[in-house]
């Protein structure tokens, strides 16, 4: 009879048991990573499908004098867009990669019908004077026909607005 509290022999299993355990863990990890990639791909496809109308809505700014911008919002889709917010920003000429500077408060447009354009005139705040060489970036936020809220900055792709 062995009254010792510590066992003299520890059974760590056999080499095939270890290979089986490592293989099982690797296969579970492989399935998990594949599933995660598939979920991301489906979300991307869903976003791409939802953005069909949003890609057809754009805005272009035109400098009119030293303190007025004419922003043309174009809706080339087959359905109206609602609750359009137009925010004009000036790209700093000395630092094109820097953050754009807000020129005025956002202008609201209730509805832009299908296959239509809407002009919004933005009066720039007094501390800014526009020049024809300035680059103006327009941030457009709107709701599509399905109720999805989108944000589009310049000519970039539309992104869901949270």
Question: How would you explain this protein's 3D organization?
Answer:
This protein is of the alpha+beta class. 22% of the residues lie in helices and 36% in strands. It is built from one helix and nine strands; from the N terminus they run H-E-E-E-E-E-E-E-E-E. Strands 3, 4, 5, 7, 8 and 9 form a six-stranded antiparallel beta sheet that branches. It is elongated. The mean pLDDT is 87.
Summarize the structure.
By secondary structure, the protein is of the alpha+beta class.
Topology, please?
Blueprint lengths: L14 H36 L6 E8 L3 E8 L5 E11 L9 E2 L4 E6 L3 E8 L11 E9 L5 E5 L5 E2 L2
- Average of per-residue pLDDT values: 87
Strand portion: 35-45%
| Helix and strand composition category | alpha+beta
> What proportion of the residues is helical, as a percent range?
10-25%
Radius of gyration (CA) equals 29 Å
Q: Globular, elongated, flat, extended or rod-shaped: what is the shape?
A: elongated
Major sheet: 6 strands, antiparallel
- What low-confidence regions span 5 or more consecutive residues with pLDDT below 50? none
Keywords:
three-stranded antiparallel β-sheet, single chain, alpha+beta, 9 strands, six-stranded antiparallel β-sheet, 162 residues, elongated
């Amino acid at each position: 009879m062995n009254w010792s509290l510590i066992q003299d022999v520890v059974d760590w299993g056999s080499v095939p048991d270890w290979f089986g355990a490592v293989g099982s863990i690797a296969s579970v990890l492989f399935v998990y990573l594949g599933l995660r990639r598939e979920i991301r791909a489906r979300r991307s496809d869903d976003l791409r499908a939802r953005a069909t109308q949003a890609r057809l809505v754009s805005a272009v700014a035109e400098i009119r004098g030293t303190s007025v911008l004419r922003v043309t919002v174009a809706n080339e889709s087959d359905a109206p867009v609602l609750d359009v917010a137009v925010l004009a920003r000036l790209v700093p000429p000395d630092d094109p990669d820097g953050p754009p500077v807000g020129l005025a408060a956002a202008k609201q447009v209730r509805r832009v019908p299908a296959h239509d354009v809407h002009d919004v005139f933005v009066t720039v705040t007094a501390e800014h004077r526009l020049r024809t060489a300035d680059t103006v970036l327009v941030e457009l936020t709107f709701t599509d026909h399905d109720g999805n809220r989108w944000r589009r900055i310049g000519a970039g792709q539309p992104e869901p607005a949270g």
